[in-house]
Amino acid sequence: MDMDGHLSESERAIVERARIFARDEMAPKAPGWEVTREVPLETARAAAEVGLCGLVVPEEHGGIGLGISAMARVMEEMSAVDFGFPFGMVVHNNLAGSIARNGTDDQRQRFLPDMLAARRIGAFLLTEPGVGSDAAAIATQAERDGEGWVLNGEKAWITNAVTADILSVYAQTDKAAGWRGIACFLVEAETPGVERLLAYEMMGGHAAGVGGFRFENCRISEANVLLAPGDAFKAALHGIDIARIVVAAACCGMLRTGIDTALEYATQRRAFGQATAEFQGLQWMLADAETDWWAARLLTVEAGRLHDAGDPGAPLAAAHAKKFSPRVCLARLADCMQVMGAAGYRHDYPLARHLAAAKMAQIVDGTTEIQNVVISRAMQKAAG
Ligand SMILES: Cc1cc2nc3c(=O)[nH]c(=O)nc-3n(C[C@H](O)[C@H](O)[C@H](O)COP(=O)(O)OP(=O)(O)OC[C@H]3O[C@@H](n4cnc5c(N)ncnc54)[C@H](O)[C@@H]3O)c2cc1C
Predict the structure, then answer these.
(1) Which residue's C-alpha comes closest to atom 44 of ligand 1?
(2) What is the residue with the minimal CA distance to atom 1 of ligand 1?
(3) pLDDT of res. 54
């Protein structure tokens, strides 16, 4: 069955490259990353060597300029093996893409070559200890200081915090202006006044290197403003819409692995004189998982297609995909584990790692409830 009919030949080639990369470079190491808490910079650099750090950077700026449908497929292939590492790669790729599209020539020259080679890693700093879903309420302040700016505040739950060198920091320049006062600054992690906080201990996904940063009288030059007040918050939401499609795709990848692993195991495992795959109860569990995988994938592909076509319905489609795909991934991975009995519970198989990551996928880039806020608003608007 051709699952990539919506992609061009060159996009298919990149998806295939990602599949091989995941198999050869990620699969042997991913279980260990979770145990040692390693944030695998070497693997990021290997990804860069095969073009996986410039996915959404236009070709004229040194990237491969993929559409979101193709980027989502790349993420699906990589996440079939592990979610944390490619999630960090998506954040890095998205910042590189944003600098290419929105940055000045000077910013592109200073940051892009190192980011494309993964010599320097990017991060997206919106969330704070006191503010998550209600992102327009961020408290980190940017105050004018002569020609430049001074940042004060704290950021939390930042993917790539452990390894990041280039921080895209969202900060409020004028509290009274609400979201319109928010600007985005490119802050180099070694800038005086930047403190990298300890990495978080989480349920899973540690290869994403999640942690926080504190900014204390951190001076930033005007040349490091990436997005001005008025533009920054809109751009952040646009980036999050894209990430929703990519996270939905990642969940398709993880669930695919869960179903395939459980089916293969049940075909070998014997109980009461037959393969456990012969028990109808288990067959139906896997059949339901397969239907949900199809549904998640169709929602995800459609959201990507609408996005790439510039359709104004794309954010709503992304919300549906981001709600549905992590939800069924979490529920059906648990069923796949059940099909395998005790074996599925061991880290010898990837199901437990993926199950923890599916929970993470329900929170990142807008929780399930926030997707419902988007969907409900659209329903009410349509109803007049
Ligand atoms: C592993 C991981 C990586 C992350 N990486 C990044 C990153 O790189 N950069 C970054 O900026 N952020 C990042 N985040 C933060 C993420 O975007 C936030 O966690 C998310 O937006 C939710 O915010 P919160 O956790 O503060 O929950 P809260 O906003 O405190 O919400 C708590 C609960 O209330 C619900 N809720 C909130 N508002 C509503 C509403 N209007 N209606 C109904 N229910 C509501 C939520 O759904 C949730 O169940 C990451 C998070 C995780 C877990």
Answers:
(1) 369
(2) 360
(3) 96
Cα separation, 337 vs 266, in Å, equals 11
Contact (Cβ atoms closer than 8 angstroms) between residue 121 and residue 49: no
User: Domain holding 162: CATH number?
Assistant: 2.40.110.10
The single-letter DSSP state of residue 229 is T
Residue 5, pLDDT above cutoff 90: no
- Find the domain containing 32 and state its range: 9-119
Here the tokens at position 157 are 């739950």
In the reported structure, the alpha carbon of residue 156 is separated from the centroid of ligand 1 by a whole-number distance in angstroms of 11
**Total structural domains in the chain?**
3
Pocket-testing residue among 127, 200, 242, 368, ligand 1, by greatest number of atoms within 8 A of Cβ: 127
ipTM tops 0.95: yes
Candidate of 37, 364, 376 to mutate for ligand 1, largest count of ligand atoms within 8 Å of Cβ: 364
pLDDT in tens, 248-297: 999 999 999 999 999 999 999 999 999 999 999 999 999 999 999 999 99
* Å from CA of 91 to ligand 1 middle: 16
- How far does the centroid of ligand 1 lie from the alpha carbon of residue 323, in Å? 14
* DSSP letter, residue 25: I
Say if strands 194-196 and 270-271 run parallel, antiparallel, or are unpaired. Answer: unpaired
φ/ψ of residue 131, rounded to 5: -140, 120
Choose one of 71, 89, 119: the last residue of a domain.
119
Quick check: CB of 133 below 6 Å from ligand 1? yes
Q: Which residue is listed with tokens 């059906």?
A: 332
Residue 254 lies in a domain: yes
Beta-bridged to residue 215, according to DSSP, are 153, 194
